[in-house]
Amino acid sequence: MIKSLRNQLVVALGLLVSVIGVAQGISSYQLSKTGMSALLDMRLEQVAARLRDGLAYALPKNPARGTQDDRDVVAVVWKPNDPLPFRTTDPSLHFPRDAKPGFSGVVVNDEDWRLFTRQEPTMTIQVAQRSSVRRDLTTEAATLTLWPIAVLLPLVWIAVVFVVRRSLRQLNQLGAEVRAIDMGHLQPLPTVGVPTEIAPFIHSINTMIERLATSIEKERKFIADAAHELRTPLTALQLQADNLAPHIAPGNQERFQELRKGIARSGKLIVQLLRLARADAPMNGAPLSRVDLAEVVTGAVADVLPIAIARGMDIGAEEMVSAHVRAVETDIGMAVKNLVSNAVRYTPDGGTIDLRMRRDGGMVWVDVIDDGPGIDEALLPRVFDRFFRANPDVEGSGLGLSIVKAIAARYGGDVTLKNRGDGRSGIVASIGFPVEEVKESAAEAASASA
Ligand SMILES: Nc1ncnc2c1ncn2[C@@H]1O[C@H](COP(=O)(O)OP(=O)(O)OP(=O)(O)O)[C@@H](O)[C@H]1O
Ligand SMILES: [Mg+2]
Question: What residue ranges are annotated as transmembrane (predicted)?
């Protein structure tokens, strides 16, 4: 059973063409044989007619023996009342003089002959040819007619493979397009220029994509709404706790502080949930600007500097590159800040954190390198999962990297997290965005007007 549609079509069309080709070959072979036979018969008749018209007298009376070729036509002329032939081109052959007029088959000297007998009032003319010679001639001619088919058949197979491949390329293309669908940005597949047979298929996929997008959007909106709704009572709770603080008996202070920490943790979780819902939301015409990535990097370092200094850490940005990204500035800021704050959070006191920028083709990357404990290789693939936390001892909601990933995807960028490959422990977290290329003259004009 052939599973591939392409192979099925190639085999079916190829076999069909082959059967037609073979049938055509057989019929032209047979037709050519019959035609050749008729031609040879005509030749015998013509020779007989010419003998009647006087050629008989031109034949030598006693042809020398052994001068006749096997392939030659043999002619015998009889005169009435004469027991021996009047003329013969081969005296060793004795054809029956009384053979029926017209064509007949006779055996002479153990050989089959095709004989044409013509009765005239003044003479009997017989013209004959060996059946084996005739067979050879007809087969030779018929075989020649098979050549074009023998040459064309393989060519037709090649053409069938080519045409079927070409026709099905559209399906392969569609498969690649479906595989490339970005779950973060569900877009309908293009329908322009699509063959009518494939169009309904694409419409079904597009309907499915639409439904999927609606359901994902509903889920996102529900999370955003829930987080938003939770924020108000939680803020009230926090206020109540703040008001209560002076009235808590010293013996209950420790438990009360735990309660406040719990409220604060829930607050942070809600804030992260809201950020994630926003990063996942469609752009919907949000105002984009030309974001200077180097500025974002120095800003992120400045933000965590007080904590880093307090913990005796060495944090710095080096190897800066001038590159701009077209985006909502707060998005890019949040993405870089999340990576930097992870580095600070998971690196022990006194550690070192380096930020570097680099260009790679059309992308600009920010690497955040720390010398903390790193992450178990087995857990690395899961760090971008929502709520996944590789190190439960340190406080966190497990949403920071999901937010970073959503922001990177939103602008056609990417984010990766790897253990350092230079023999030291620690993480290299990298985020890359497509660079906004501006023509030099435009950039100069912009800087001149600034
Ligand atoms: N630089 C790093 N070094 C070691 N582990 C890290 C580093 N960055 C991330 N991780 C691990 O990846 C997990 C997921 O990180 P993520 O930023 O998504 O969540 P979080 O930091 O726990 O919480 P949040 O960022 O939402 O406050 C973290 O819990 C931590 O275990
Ligand atoms: Mg984090």
Answer: 144-164
